[in-house]
Amino acid sequence: MRNIKLIIQYDGTNYHGWQIQSRCVTAQGEVLKAVRKMVGDNSLKLVGASRTDSGVHAIGQVGNFQIPETNTIDCLAFHHGLNSLTPDDIVISAVQEVSPEFHARFDARGKTYCYQLYNAENLSIYHRRFSWHIRRRLDLNAMRQASTHLRGCHDFTSFQAASCGAETSIRTVFALHIQEREPLVRIFIRANAYLYRMVRNIVGTLVDVGFGKREPDDVRRILEGKNRTLAGMTAPAHGLFLLKVHY
Amino acid sequence: MRNIKLIIQYDGTNYHGWQIQSRCVTAQGEVLKAVRKMVGDNSLKLVGASRTDSGVHAIGQVGNFQIPETNTIDCLAFHHGLNSLTPDDIVISAVQEVSPEFHARFDARGKTYCYQLYNAENLSIYHRRFSWHIRRRLDLNAMRQASTHLRGCHDFTSFQAASCGAETSIRTVFALHIQEREPLVRIFIRANAYLYRMVRNIVGTLVDVGFGKREPDDVRRILEGKNRTLAGMTAPAHGLFLLKVHY
Questions:
Q1: Which of A15, A169, B92, B117 keeps 20 to 30 A from B57, CA to CA?
Q2: Domain range holding B182?
Q3: Looking at the structure, do residues A173 and A67 belong to the same domain, yes or no?
Q4: Cβ atoms within 10 A of the Cβ of A183, count?
């Protein structure tokens, strides 16, 4: 079998997340429909690296699908064809032929997310779909200090949504940094894996620190407490981007 | 009478332009509805500086309206109130009390527009609503050379839409420059006034030059020819922004 890898961007505003669900419009559903149409096989499966939530965006979602050796559609044809078949808010940014063993989800060694805040009195019409508007001036130094406690290997129970069914709550955050491009503030986080809503719960807590409602050292105590009620609110979905899947 | 000036941003994607029309959703219509609701006067008029076309965006549209001296709503209350009453894709970014003589349209001495191109193989989901996607690599030096012919006072007949009913086609372009922020290319143009679709016709012609389909000096000949059929295509509306109105 041939194995085709896709890099997929989507504006998550109008999607019920990545993963296919009956009666809901999802990014995976739209890409799958386009692939099946090109390949002419209605039982074809599309693997995705990350099940992004409803409203979350992707710059670097990764997918793969298998087709018979007899299929001669090349990568360039898939690239152009899929972009013409998917809606405008989904963009296939790369198509690559990979080894038959490659699996977009199981082979992922980590993922980078970016959460974008728009820190100004007035929201911008340009960024509103892609950022959480925060009027009050954030103390980025305090947020940066708080984020040092989150780097490394920890039990992230306090940052996991109640509905999370993961076997273990231990995750490794390889990198967490905050970039300022006034009035945009971007929180980049790279971890081996994530608990349900972990990034958005971390961001909500860091924003509390930025407001001065919590001290940077509180974040250490929140981690140690292993209790979701200790951490801050869940940041809204529309500020979050799946930036890159690492293999 | 009190005279209130508004600076208005809007994402033009879902609007039939600025100006009120029956049976069409327009930016002016939405702002007017909000102002009338706050003021409690259904005959109130809202002046706008520029009648942007369907699909065109604004960062710095200017409006003004008059209310009786007895009305005590202050600017801050208008600012917050109007933002809560208008849809999310319209943002009031400033409210200011101005002299009774100020008129948003008649007092404008010029306007700056920005046209944004996204020059890359793949469109970006972030910028797609706000830029014209151009795959082929543009020759910006040639475009810059071409734009020198457009600066200054000229008869812009060749760049005016056929349906334009302006009395004279002579306009003064004070500034026209091209900025590169890869993969974004921004064309800034500041003029005393504009003919119908003038910016979009100029951009379409400059893009032809960027493709090498026309020489930079052709632009001088197009101007001199005073004939719309000589210039290039009309660039699509969604790359255009009304940036600033000058008083």
A1: A15
A2: 110-246
A3: no
A4: 18
CATH of the domain at B27: 3.30.70.580
Exactly one of A53, A89, A208, A217 is catalytic; which is it?
A: A53
Number of domains in chain A: 2
Residues of B in contact with A123 (CB under 8 A): 91
Domain contains B16: yes
Say which CATH number the domain at A218 has: 3.30.70.660
Active site residue A53: yes
Prediction ipTM score = 0.91
Q: Please check whether residues B83 and B135 belong to one and the same domain.
A: no
Residue of A nearest to B239 (CA): A126
The answer to whether residue A164 scores a pLDDT higher than 70 is no
Q: How do residues A130-159 score in pLDDT, each as one tens digit?
A: 999 999 999 999 999 999 999 999 999 999
CA distance A64 to chain B (A): 19
Helix ranges (DSSP H) in A5-139 = 27-39, 75-85
Do A234 and A163 lie in one domain? The reply is: yes
Element (H, E) at A4: strand A2-10
Q: What percent of chain A has pLDDT over 90?
A: 95
| C-beta separation of A222 from A155 below 8 A | no
Which tens digits make up the pLDDT trace of B38-96? 999 999 999 999 999 999 999 999 999 999 999 999 999 999 999 999 999 999 999 99
- Please report the number of interchain residue pairs, chain A to chain B, with beta-carbon separation below 8 angstroms: 48
Contact check, Cβ <8 Å, A92/B122:
yes
Rounded to an integer, what distance in angstroms lies between the CA atom of residue B136 and that of residue B104?
A: 40
**Residue among B157, B180, B171, B173 nearest B231 (CA):** B157
Cβ <8 Å between B128 and A57 = no
Residue of B nearest to A59 (CA): B125
